[in-house]
Design goal:
With about 575 residues, the protein is α/β, with parallel strands linked by helices. It has two domains: about 55-145 and about 435-520, f41 fragment of flagellin, N-terminal domain (Up-down Bundle); about 150-425, no CATH class. It contains 17 helices and eight strands. Strands 4-5-3-6 form a four-stranded mixed beta sheet, covered by helices on one side. A two-stranded antiparallel ribbon has the order 1-2.
């Protein structure tokens, strides 16, 4: 027995202190509602729950960000919807202006309304803002060519220049392209040799011309003067018709096997060249001198073109006189018999009794006072070279058909399309079509995730009168071009609205996904950090009872040393 050390009391005190700590912990958890009130409660749990708290708070911000993104997208889409309404009205006015019953004064009145509607489109594009930021990019032209002359040439090509030329070639020559590409090139560097030309490479396997390009010398195509272009009588549409003969023959015959005079004469005959012949005949002084121009090497002079034209026109008449359809018989043979030369064709058509080879034909045609000279003199003396008809195949002078003047030989209707050719796939120069996409590359990045680069991006749309190619809408001149440009603008805005709708849907989906993630992260954090009130209440009750018991034992233990006094007494 000892009195200096009361082990029983020490044990009871330690137990009492331990249960006092448990009571304090329970009080803290019950009063805060948290199982972890400090790192001592659960160091690992605290670290995990803090990361979850960061994620939960970030998810809340991301949801707000996505909501703001939805609002911006809705603002942009609403403005685009307003533009569509204006464009639809402009299209209605263009259709109205296309009607033959509408006078010039009426078209001017319609144009006045169009001008106001276009200005409204400009205002909406420039003044649509969100939180002080301009939504649309209205700078520049959006890659569109801002050259009225080039735009007018493209309008002419997409109008009737190409289509009418192709249709004439198909009707009177029986030829059409095979779907190969035809690239349109507008040349800025003046070339005194050509107003336009077709280039390409001979395919050694098929003999056809591949990679064809229709080059237009812009210097020679100004002024554009719709619908025919250029100046009378050699309008731009006639030049295009000439070159389209080369392009079509390049894909339907073995062009490299044919003589240049025949190729150029056929190209002139499709639209007629009486004006050129009359001028060149007066300059050289005699029919013999003019028809003899094709006897030598080809040098591309105007006289050679005139001589070639007269030769092909004469050949056309000779074949008809012998019971054939004319030059169409030659073209059909060349098209159906790959690798054929003009000798082969002449031997096959109904002129074989007079000239079965090219040499026979040239000898007879270019001889002094020969068939060519006589034929040309007849054209001149009959007044055909001086009348309004151009001498084109199928026309009044050549075939007794409709009179084809310099202005009417290529149809000038209001038809307009970005795909005018059936026999070719056109490749248009860049900058003549409204293309979807962002403006200067600037993008809206909506932060919809909890970490860096977790964004939904969309381009800042370039929406302006210039970018929509509406700057040259003129109902007083070319309603067909106006309608197609409006359709292109509508298509662009429809695609833009579709893109915005897709972004809107993504943002809504992001909000939904973040909401689900926030719910799950919060639940997981609650399981780690929140106190279980039932468990903590039970623990508190137990700790109180045990502490009271331990305090009673401390009191009992403190009286134990008094037993020693009995031994001493």
């Amino acid at each position: 027995m000892q009195i200096n050390t009361n082990l029983a009391s020490l044990f009871a005190q330690r137990q009492s202190a331990r249960h006092q700590g448990a009571i304090e912990t329970s009080f803290a958890r019950l009063s805060s509602g948290l199982r972890i009130n400090g790192a001592k409660d659960d160091a690992a749990g605290l670290a995990i729950s803090e990361r979850m708290t960061t994620q939960a708070r970030a998810l809340g911000v991301a949801m707000r960000n996505a909501g703001d993104g939805v609002s911006l997208v809705q603002t942009a889409e609403g403005s685009l919807s307003t533009m569509v309404e204006n464009l639809q009205r402009i299209r209605e006015l263009a259709l109205q202006a296309s009607n033959a019953t509408v006078s010039v004064t009426d078209r001017q009145a319609l144009q006045s309304e169009v001008d106001q509607l276009i200005q409204e489109i400009r205002r909406v594009s420039e003044e649509t803002t969100f939180n002080g930021q301009q939504i649309f990019d209205t700078s520049g032209t959006g890659g569109l060519v801002n050259d009225s002359n080039k735009v007018a040439v493209i309008d002419g090509l997409r109008g009737e220049w190409l289509k009418a030329s192709e249709d004439r070639i198909a009707e009177y020559y029986g030829l059409r392209g095979d779907g190969a590409s035809l690239r349109i090139v507008l040349d800025d560097a003046p070339d005194p040799r050509y107003a336009a030309f077709v280039s390409g490479t001979v395919d050694p396997t098929t003999g056809k011309i591949v990679d064809q390009e229709l080059h237009v010398d812009m210097e020679d195509f100004v002024p554009p003067n719709p619908p025919n272009g250029g100046t009378a009588p050699f309008y731009n549409d006639r030049i295009i018709a000439h070159e389209m003969v080369h392009a079509v023959m390049g894909r339907s015959t073995t062009m490299a096997a044919l003589p240049t005079w025949f190729l150029e004469g056929a190209a002139e005959f499709i639209h007629g060249a009486d004006e050129r012949v009359q001028s060149d005949l007066a300059r050289v002084g005699s029919a013999d001198a003019l028809v003899g121009q094709i006897a030598g090497a080809w040098n591309g002079s105007s006289e050679q073109y005139s001589s070639a034209y007269v030769a092909v026109r004469y050949l056309h008449q000779a074949i008809k006189d012998d019971g054939g359809e004319g030059i169409k018989d030659v073209m059909t043979f060349l098209s159906q018999n790959a690798g054929s030369t003009l000798d082969h064709a002449l031997a096959a058509v109904s002129t074989s009794a007079r000239f079965s080879t090219e040499a026979d034909f040239l000898t007879a045609f270019t001889a002094a006072a020969g068939v060519g000279s006589t034929y040309l003199q007849d054209l001149d003396s009959s007044g055909q070279l001086a009348n309004a008809d151009t001498g084109a195949i199928g026309g009044l002078d050549a075939d007794g058909g409709t009179e084809f003047t310099a202005a009417s030989i290529i149809s000038a209707s209001s038809q307009y399309t970005d795909d005018p050719l059936q026999g070719f796939t056109e490749i248009w120069p860049d900058g003549y079509d409204v293309q979807p996409g962002s403006g200067s590359g600037e993008r809206y990045a909506f932060q919809v995730g909890t970490f860096r680069d977790q964004t939904i991006e969309t381009g800042r749309l370039k929406v302006s009168v210039e970018a929509l190619n509406l700057g040259n809408i003129d109902l007083t001149e070319n309603t067909g071009a106006a309608i197609v440009r409006i359709d292109s603008a509508l298509e662009y805005i429809d695609r833009a609205r579709a893109d915005l709708g897709a972004v809107h849907a993504r943002l809504e989906s992001a909000i939904t996904g973040n909401s689900i993630a926030l719910e799950n992260v919060t639940a997981a954090r609650s399981r780690i950090r929140d106190a279980d009130i039932a468990v903590e209440t039970a623990g508190l009750t137990r700790a109180n009872i045990v502490r009271q018991a331990s305090l009673a034992m401390v009191a009992q233990a403190n009286t134990t040393p008094q037993v020693v006094m009995q031994l001493l007494g």
